[in-house]
């Protein structure tokens, strides 16, 4: 048997072969560690930063040796598809209420009232009629970067999603194309504003195991600001309501160097100056609760695999009472930098991710903080 020192020396001498489907910050970080890139389709690798399409098509037919690592869990979509994450969070809330009680279950009230359309159309209509002046937001279940999202206040705007029987009265089948599945959520219409503008917060959460649950939170996320002043009266203006960089950068007066981002440290300092340490501590503790509860909601159904890890991009909105709301969770958060500051943040974050994954075998396994 090797001693741990001999094993570490052996690991350090071994060249780590990597594959990467992205040519952006992550490929730069992988090369910066002295790892060797494998470009051939059939080439052997030790570490693979793959896209979710590869997971769907190849993972089940792939033999993986003990040391190999991959950046997605097999059924990552249980947490990141908007309809499935809502279903899993609702189930966790019911379970906590049943086993512990309503007060503890209320800690799961961090995601807006959500329905899936067209499946829940009639249940949604009942809720819609109970609060006739509310604003609702429609999101396609499997798209990202703000694609396909719109706000509405009238049922006629979503008539396409009305659940009809697929058989006509005369017994023939309705041949219309089925509509794309969406989630509809009550819109958080009183967000916290900075300089009159709406923002949300991107946080990076790394999961290295679901059983037991092992989670790392990156300390430096960022706030993404809207380029336009907020008004609930203009629900058709996406530049006001959607803070995604993919949307904001198409705004006529967007400046890529200035961007629309604040670092999480800047944001925290601003909130501390305005509201004091106690309120800000409560807010950030509430965000930690969101990360933990959402991961617990899929802990029993996620296919845990020692070869897999996942870096999630959480999008959190703060309302005017400093309550945090979960907007969505991304399985492939954008690693393309919008400017040099953004590149530096993502480079350091990904460097720390690779240190934690520890292909080189340098960690003891007892570390609580990296970087």
What does this molecule look like?
- The protein is an alpha+beta fold and 371 residues long.
- Helix content is 32%, strand content 20%.
- Strands 9, 10, 11, 12, 13, 14 and 15 form a seven-stranded antiparallel β-sheet that branches.
Task: Compose a concise summary of this entry.
The chain is an alpha+beta fold and 371 residues long.
Helix content percent band: 25-40%
> What's the end-to-end separation, in Å?
32 Å
Number of strands: 15
Are there runs of 5+ residues with pLDDT below 50, and where? 1-7, 165-171
Tell me, briefly, the overall form: globular
Beta-strand content estimate = 15-25%
Main beta sheet: 7 strands, antiparallel
| Helix-strand topology string | HEHEEHEHHHEHEEEEEEEHHEHHEEH
Structural class: alpha+beta
Number of helices: 12
Present the secondary structure layout:
Blueprint: H1 4-13, E1 17-20, H2 25-32, E2 36-37, E3 47-49, H3 52-57, E4 69-70, H4 77-80, H5 82-99, H6 102-105, E5 114-117, H7 121-130, E6 136-140, E7 150-152, E8 182-186, E9 193-194, E10 197-210, E11 213-217, E12 222-229, H8 238-241, H9 245-248, E13 261-263, H10 264-275, H11 277-296, E14 310-318, E15 324-330, H12 340-357
Helix pairs in contact: 2-12, 10-11
Search tags:
371 residues, alpha+beta, seven-stranded antiparallel β-sheet, 12 helices, globular, disordered N terminus
